[in-house]
Amino acid sequence: MNNKLYGNLIFELSKEGRRGYSLPANRFGNYPVPKELQRKEEAGLPECDELTVVRHYTNHSSNNFGVNNGFYPLGSCTMKYNPAIDEEMSAMPEFSNLHPLQPHHTVAGAEDVCNLLSESLKAITGMEAFTLKPYAGAHGELTGLMIIKAYHESRGDMKRTKVIVPDSAHGTNPASAAVCGLSVVEVKSRADGTVDVDDLRSILDETVAAMMMTNPNTLGLFEKSIPEIAELVHSHGALMYYDGANLNPMLGACRPGDMGFDVMHINLHKTFATPHGGGGPGAGPVGVRKGLEQFFPTVSPYQGNFAVAMRAYAYILSLGKENIKMVGPLATLNANYIKESLKDVYELPIDGLCKHEFVFNGLKDKSTGVTTMDVAKRLLDYGYHAPTIYFPLLFHESLMIEPAENESKETMDGFIEVMRRIAEEAKTEPDTVKNAPHNTPIGRVDDVLAAKHPIVTYRQMCNNKQEQ
Ligand SMILES: *Cc1c(COP(=O)(O)O)cnc(C)c1O
Fold it and tell me: Ranges for the Glycine dehydrogenase C-terminal domain (predicted)?
């Protein structure tokens, strides 16, 4: 793309008096705008011809990298397959034009979608009831913890102020606990990456409200001690919370409801379609076991993010009961294929079978000085999105890789080849890797400067010169 020709900002292309569009004639007559609501100054809108506008935005849009452009191995965030048919379903005017305040008898179809989705989620997870209201995973966690708090309070048990969270947990877990007014106690991981049950035993007491767990955990490992952990936690009167943000490796293999979890959330936008790059949209339905349904709080009006629920239901229906069972095994196979193909050149801190994702601790050869950040940036040069980096915090150079369940072998082979090439470059031409990316519209940015001196506004001068 030629940034100079089409400009970084539409304002920089503005020429006084240019027109790209003419408004239709005013059909409504002239109504006086009260003086106090009238502008004191010109709006300062850009003035451009049609082709300049079209090219400007088209070129900007092609700078985006998404799952439809190429391989997107981001771990912990399951940037998965988002079939176009799910988009079509949720965009059907019969659904997308609904108003939340429409008379009840006119929205029976949408109500069916919500009920059928809840039924499907119950069957998939083994939970007793679901609320579709939460708008995201973190919102689901907060909702779930509010349920747990309400449960303890309903029994007059007011001393439970702590939530136990593994040190490998997603950052939203401790954050949600804090927002819910609970304090966080960290439980350690064992050398094999799973929860240290002895450490848990030493933490548990009558002030613990809940234990939050992710399974497979953020290292992509199946927590084999869950039955033992659930029994321990329950014996101390606390509840088990399941972070089901990335449920895909579990689909058809096992159900959190059968493992002793009391409350859980699912990220529909990670496990059941909906593209969610750039922070949205999402939906984090919360499920509870029998006996906790009466504690569902009102965390949003109406039925939550209906368009996301619609996509999820279309996704589940299009796979069906039989095919949905293939998702978990295929996600697991793909992750293990990549892990095994690269572990001789990247450091694998925890060996063994992983589930849908796994974590390397940077390059195996530490003598080159090439970091995980450098590898991630160099991948952009080769047309791949970077994996999740520097998370989880258990390792200094975390590189967390997750292929989707439906990636072809050829796609993964291409990624493996490039990862091996970068490992080779780290030895032969380390500066190329350290200064990457070279082929992107913007090169390596200065993270520290951007964080310390962010420029978040754009000021335009009247004479069309701008300062930043
Ligand atoms: C993504 C994620 C969350 C948070 O979900 P949001 O929708 O981003 O709020 C929580 N836990 C895990 C394990 C996740 O991967």
Answer: 330-429
In the predicted model, what is the mean pLDDT of residues 191-215?
A: 96
Mutate which of 76, 241, 248, 274 for ligand 1? The one with the most ligand atoms within 8 Å of its CB, which is: 76
Q: Is residue 137 domain-shared with residue 178, that is, in the same domain?
A: yes
Residue 136 sits in the same domain as residue 204:
yes
Cα 386 from chain centroid (whole Å): 15
**pLDDT band at residue 456 under the 50/70/90 scheme:** confident
Q: Could you read off the pLDDT of 367-423 as tens digits, one per residue? A: 999 999 999 999 999 999 999 999 988 899 999 999 988 899 999 999 999 999 999
Distance of CA 10 to the CA centre of its chain: 30
pLDDT of 280:
74
Q: How far is the CA of 189 from the centre of ligand 1 (A)?
A: 20
Q: Which domain holds residue 410?
A: 330-449
Going from the Cα of 245 to the center of ligand 1, the distance in angstroms, rounded, reads 5
